[in-house]
Specification:
The complex is a heterodimer of chains A (182) and B (279). By secondary structure, chain A is of the alpha/beta class. Chain A has a single domain, classed as Fe-S hydro-lyase, tartrate dehydratase beta-type, catalytic domain (fumarase, Alpha-Beta Barrel), CATH 3.20.130. Chain A has six helices and seven strands. Chain A has a five-stranded mixed beta barrel. The longest helix of chain A has 12 residues. Chain B has 279 residues and is an alpha/beta fold. Chain B has two domains: 99 residues, Dihydrodipicolinate Reductase, domain 2 (2-Layer Sandwich), CATH 3.30.360; 127 residues, no CATH class. Chain B is 41% helix and 23% strand. The longest helix of chain B is centred in the first third of the chain and has 20 residues. Chain B is globular, with a radius of gyration of 19 Å. The chains are: A alpha/beta (182), B alpha/beta (279). Chains A and B meet through helix 5, strand 7 and helix 6 of A and helix 3 of B. The complex binds iron/sulfur cluster. Iron/sulfur cluster (SF4) sits at the interface of chains B and A.
């Protein structure tokens, strides 16, 4: 099913998403990779406030190429998500609803999603030029010293991703591979 | 003796890396289109179609097709009848430096595996030099992404493991990697040699054209059998489930010790970027 979502996300819409759904997101999303996640979680450990509002938010795991003149962002495909597994639950507790990356993640992560009514989406790895077309604006909002790994605020239009783990505990990788295995 | 101008080598390396990142080889694109046609899972078909659209977009708008523009891998084939003055490695690195800093490519190299400080210009490149007779000077480049390289391995099998042991190792490796290396894949397999040689064989296998076949009859048969076995795993595009996990398998072989059966598997994602030129 094709689903059009606005971000920040309506939590009720997130709960309705099912694995295999093709999602088109319009609105604000934040980027973050390992280093940024580590810093966000250190702040939470110290009970300090975060530089971004993750409540009902979307985080996209990406480290783009430098933008060419005239473009909002460089090529911007997803990076492997499992590296963010140790940090994700702390952000889910803060109300994060959608994470976008690529590839399988830990069992613990997958099992934490129903508890928070959250989902994990995949963007198409390597389809980075196409993804950059849906990014209309990009600015650094935290950790500028991290360069491509800094937290960027993106304004996106019809950003395409596929529901991979839903809030009911379903796993597209598991079910999809089982279906086509010979 | 023919003189090779190292400045020309630098210029060519720069051009080739930028071109490789933006412009996927025609035969890889054709293999992807064929996979999209044949894929039985509607979702994986859609994904491969988007990968093809992305490739065209890269070409038309001169954008890197993937944000991971990789570590710069360079093979130089140098004839014994050419010569050059100066440091060939530095000439290559300068080309890489220019490509990545001026060509809007991502710098993904750290200076030390443990202190992890970015070198900021994607150097040093990984350079392999092969000496041959004649006056040839050929450059092959491949920007190699981390996601697929991380799923590669070397394993010292024993002769008794035989062809069945190799098949199991390859299929398990691809299956366990799932969506992580961005399938549909090209799988390079090196068999024989020794510990380091088999890894080089696997890498060189990935430098072969996607549509060529091994001239060694045993390797040729194995390439076809492995392709079928990998596609039977059901992994599919990006691991979503499907019948086209792999576009091609390339097997390179080399003589080895009576007691050994070294096997290396080098995984290449669908962004099978490779460019070459002859000076
Ligand atoms: S595995 Fe290949 S296609 Fe996927 S992100 Fe890495 S370089 Fe790009």
């Amino acid at each position: 099913m094709k689903v059009y979502l606005n971000s920040p996300i309506n939590p009720e819409e997130v709960k309705k998403l099912r694995i295999g759904d093709e999602v088109y997101i319009t609105g604000v999303i934040y980027t973050g990779r390992d280093a940024a996640h580590k810093r966000l979680c250190e702040l939470l450990d110290k009970r300090e406030s975060l530089p971004i509002d993750v409540k009902n938010g979307v985080i996209y795991y990406v480290g783009p190429t430098p933008a060419k003149p005239g473009r909002a962002i460089g090529s911007a495909g997803p990076t492997s998500s499992y590296r963010m597994d140790p940090y994700s639950e702390q952000l889910l507790k803060e109300g994060l609803k959608v994470m976008i990356g690529k590839g399988p993640r830990s069992k613990e992560f997958k099992q934490s999603l129903p508890k928070y009514g959250a989902v994990y989406l995949s963007a198409i790895g390597g389809a980075a030029a196409q993804i950059s077309e849906s990014v209309k604006k990009c600015e650094v909002v935290a950790y500028e010293d991290l360069g491509a790994e800094a937290i960027h605020r993106l304004e996106v239009e019809n950003f395409y991703a596929i529901v991979t783990y839903d809030s009911k505990g379903n796993d597209l990788f598991e079910q999809g591979i089982e279906q086509y295995k010979k | 003796m023919r003189k090779i101008d190292l400045q020309l080598v630098t210029d060519k390396i720069k051009e080739l890396f930028i071109d490789a990142c933006e412009n996927i080889p025609e035969n890889v694109l054709n293999a992807l289109k064929k996979a999209a046609e044949e894929e039985q899972s509607p979702l994986s078909k859609e994904v491969i179609n988007k990968i093809v659209e992305n490739a065209y977009l890269g070409r038309e708008k001169h954008l890197p097709i993937c944000q991971d523009t990789g570590v710069a891998v360079v093979y130089l084939t140098i004839g014994s009848e050419v010569y050059f003055e100066g440091d060939i490695y530095e000439a290559v690195n300068e080309g890489v430096r220019l490509a990545y800093t001026q060509g809007y490519l991502r710098k993904s190299v750290v200076r030390h595996p443990l202190d992890r400080v970015n070198t900021k210009d994607n150097t040093p490149a990984i350079v392999h030099i092969k000496m041959v007779p004649g006056d040839v000077f050929k450059i092959d480049v491949a920007p190699k992404g981390g996601g697929s390289e991380n799923m590669s391995l070397v394993k010292m099998l024993i002769p008794a493991d035989g062809i069945e042991g190799i098949k199991k190792l390859v299929v398990d490796t691809v299956f366990n990697a799932g969506g992580k290396p961005c399938p549909p894949l090209v799988v390079g397999v090196g068999i024989g040699g020794n510990f380091e040689k088999c890894a080089l064989l696997a890498k060189e296998a990935l430098f072969r054209e996607i549509d060529d076949e091994s001239s060694d009859p045993i390797a040729n048969k194995l390439e076809k059998e492995l392709l079928t076995l990998i596609n039977n795993t059901g992994v599919g595009a990006m691991g979503f489930g499907g019948t086209k996990t792999c576009l091609a398998v390339k097997v390179n072989v080399h003589p080895c010790h009576i007691a050994s059966l070294p096997v290396a598997i080098n995984i290449q994602c669908h962004a099978a970027r490779h460019k070459s030129c002859t000076l």
